[in-house]
Design goal:
Chain lengths: 156, 121
């Protein structure tokens, strides 16, 4: 009985910090009705110095087009390993992409910025379409993009 | 005795079944007796000429930016196309694994909880 309790206590102790260190965050991106094909979007994070930290999502599965997401491409060299397991379909004009990710708490209020690069076939590329600081205060506040993104917000 | 006869019949039938098509494939028949069998091999080579198929579909390559950098107007450099499902792409790079098929990259941004969920409205 004692050993069972000890085991339970140990597993609880090991599990709780993991749960507390991350939280589900919903990223909502709504596109304008720009009248083109589906947009490729790269969502990624830079630190306080502007250095690339990692990617959160890639909308668009064909790596041959990633060079048009120029800031992301420059930072990663087009390395598809950066977006393995976090890649989905491109997003049509006027549509809303809603992604829920289990994100580390350390991302928030620590000087990190979330960026979105966008590109559409036959239309101009739009690097840094959105740049929004990851802070608790900014959560839930919609931000407009420059060309293709009508609004972007993250909710915790 | 019956056993021997049965064995002989079986081996003969087996030999004929394997040998006749092979023989007729190697020899063009002059009398036409084995023509139906030989035709399986002989005519097929004429009916199916080697066709070099191109799966290029450069209609989908009309991406651009202000400088038209990386524009794929030419037909020669596409090792991967939009409409095929292979993973080969420029420079040997592969398409990334879709969400849900592998874990997110270990970039320190993700927790160990629920896998990514996506919805397009």
């Amino acid at each position: 009985m004692k050993s069972l309790l000890a085991t339970l206590a140990l597993t609880t102790a090991l599990t709780l910090p993991g749960l507390a260190m991350a939280r589900p965050v919903t990223l909502t991106t709504t596109l304008n009705s720009y009248g083109g094909d589906g947009a490729y979007l790269a969502l990624y994070v830079t630190d306080a110095s502007g250095a690339y930290v990692g990617s959160l999502w890639m909308a668009g599965g064909k790596s041959k087009y990633y060079e048009h997401l120029s800031d992301w491409y420059r930072a990663t060299g087009g390395d598809t390993a950066q977006v393995n397991g976090i890649t989905g379909a491109s997003v049509g004009a006027g549509r809303t992409l809603e992604i829920t990710l289990d994100l580390a708490d350390a991302l928030f209020d620590a000087g990190y910025t979330l960026h979105i690069d966008a590109a559409v076939e036959d239309m101009r590329d739009s690097p840094n379409e959105v740049a929004v600081p990851l802070t608790s205060d900014s959560a839930g506040t919609p931000v407009a993009g420059r060309r293709y993104v009508a609004s972007f917000a993250y909710d915790m | 005795m019956k056993k021997i006869l049965t064995l002989l019949a079986a081996s003969t039938a087996l030999t004929a079944a394997i040998g006749v098509p092979a023989w007729s494939a190697m020899h063009a028949p002059a009398d036409g007796v084995l023509r139906p069998v030989a035709a399986l091999f002989h005519d097929a080579t004429q009916a199916m000429p080697l066709v070099l198929a191109s799966d290029d579909d450069d209609d989908d390559d009309r991406w651009r930016d202000g400088s038209r950098r990386g524009h794929d107007d030419d037909d020669d450099d596409d090792d991967c196309d939009d409409d095929d499902d292979d993973d080969e792409c420029r420079g040997g790079a592969r398409n990334p694994a879709p969400a849900g098929t592998v874990a997110p990259p270990p970039n320190g941004l993700f927790g160990n909880g629920a896998p990514p969920q996506v919805q397009v409205n």
